[in-house]
Design a protein that fits this description.
alpha/beta, Spore Coat Polysaccharide Biosynthesis Protein SpsA, Chain A, five-stranded mixed β-barrel, three-stranded mixed sheet, 18 strands
């Protein structure tokens, strides 16, 4: 079991625009009647920490209300094991992890940590816990542990891990590979040593602090000046402790380097091993994939011969004589800008191009 589990809850999630935006990132979208991507991640974290462990949630200040809303229904004893750290600025994943490591070290030097994403689907839980236990054992042995998912098809949207011989589910990492083109992805799938990079990590806090100092001192150095926060620096929201005013945190984020943990640490660390996962792992990267997990249309839909269409709208929508469309509409309630997306199934990856056009046009308030 881990001493601490870190959930990175930042990001803008524009791949599911316009439902997902900088105001409401993808991780806070629903995946069932009861859960969001984020709330299921919290449940996973709680399942793999020890009795005195904490779930450390790193989230931007604008997203704290979404965090609290998603976990407000947890039991009181579960809320006591959660700490939310309010990020004053978005500085990528390396800074978020360095901040969490610094916080964890205040509670002891030999704490093992698991870093989870907040916007993936992982099932079943018991297999995840088995893989997490294997990662914890390696983390205690002063290793950086990554989780490699056996690829199911040639995927150009994921990074890949190249591993050596797998023994008892664990192998040394040979190299990390960027998102490939289709031909390269086809070669990776045929090679038993290549795995999808899940974006999850395990390590001991003390070991990782040393690795940061060696490989990315510009990331962790600003956080070294932080002192253990006093109780007065926390506020309670719906029974959850939020570190809302950590003295020096604004300056630390201002001075830290903005870089991903993969680039800053994982790709450079020579003490890295990989756990071959046995669970189902889904990174919902476009509307077509999201429509498969959200089986029903969202909103009031009138359908006259509209075949195989998916609608997510906060205003009524009528379909007549169309097929294979995905329609997403946000009407601009509560002062938010109105926007609509209409795309054919099989073309939803092009939403990225739309988002880039919006950025270039200057209408960034839509994002």
């Amino acid at each position: 079991m881990f001493d601490d589990c870190v959930i990175m809850a930042g990001g803008s999630g524009t791949r599911l625009w316009p439902a997902s935006s900088s105001r409401l990132p993808k991780q806070f979208l629903p995946i069932s009647e009861k859960d969001t991507f984020f709330s299921t991640s919290v449940k996973r974290a709680l399942s793999v920490i020890c009795k005195k462990g904490y779930v450390i949630i790193i989230a931007g200040k604008p997203h704290i209300p979404h965090v609290i809303s998603d976990i407000r229904k947890l039991k009181a004893n579960e809320k006591k094991r959660i700490v939310v750290i309010s990020e004053p600025a978005a500085k990528n994943t390396a800074a978020a992890i360095a901040c969490a490591v610094k916080y964890s070290l205040f509670n002891g030097s030999n704490r093992n940590m698991l870093v989870l994403t907040s916007d993936h689907i992982i099932n079943p839980l018991n297999v995840f816990k088995t893989n997490a236990a294997a990662a914890c054992a390696s983390a205690k042995d002063k290793k950086l542990v990554v989780f490699g998912v056996p690829p199911l098809h040639p995927e150009t949207g994921y990074g890949y891990i190249e591993a050596g011989k797998i023994i008892s589910g664990i192998g040394n990492v040979v190299a990390f590979h960027e998102k490939p083109d289709l031909q390269t992805a086809k070669k990776y799938v045929k090679n038993k040593h290549f795995f999808w990079n899940s974006g999850m990590f395990a390590f001991s806090a003390e070991f990782m602090a040393d690795v940061f100092h060696r490989l990315a001192p510009g990331v962790i150095a600003p956080f070294e000046k932080l002192k253990k926060p006093a109780e007065k620096h926390f506020i309670k929201l719906q029974g959850v402790r939020v570190l809302n005013s950590w003295p020096g945190i604004e300056n630390a984020y201002k001075k830290t380097k903005s870089i991903s943990f993969d680039y800053a640490i994982a790709e450079k660390c020579t003490q890295t091993v990989m756990v071959k996962t046995g669970f189902e792992w889904i990174d919902i990267g476009n509307w077509e994939e999201y429509s498969k997990i959200s089986l029903n249309n969202s909103g009031l839909v009138f359908n006259a011969s509209g075949e195989s269409c998916y609608v997510d709208s906060d205003i009524p929508v009528a379909l007549a004589g169309v097929e294979d469309l995905i329609i997403v509409i946000r009407s601009g309630k509560n002062g938010k800008p109105a926007s609509a997306l209409i795309t054919r199934k099989g073309q939803t990856q092009k939403v990225r191009e739309v988002v880039e056009q919006i950025k270039k046009s200057g209408y960034t308030e839509l994002l």
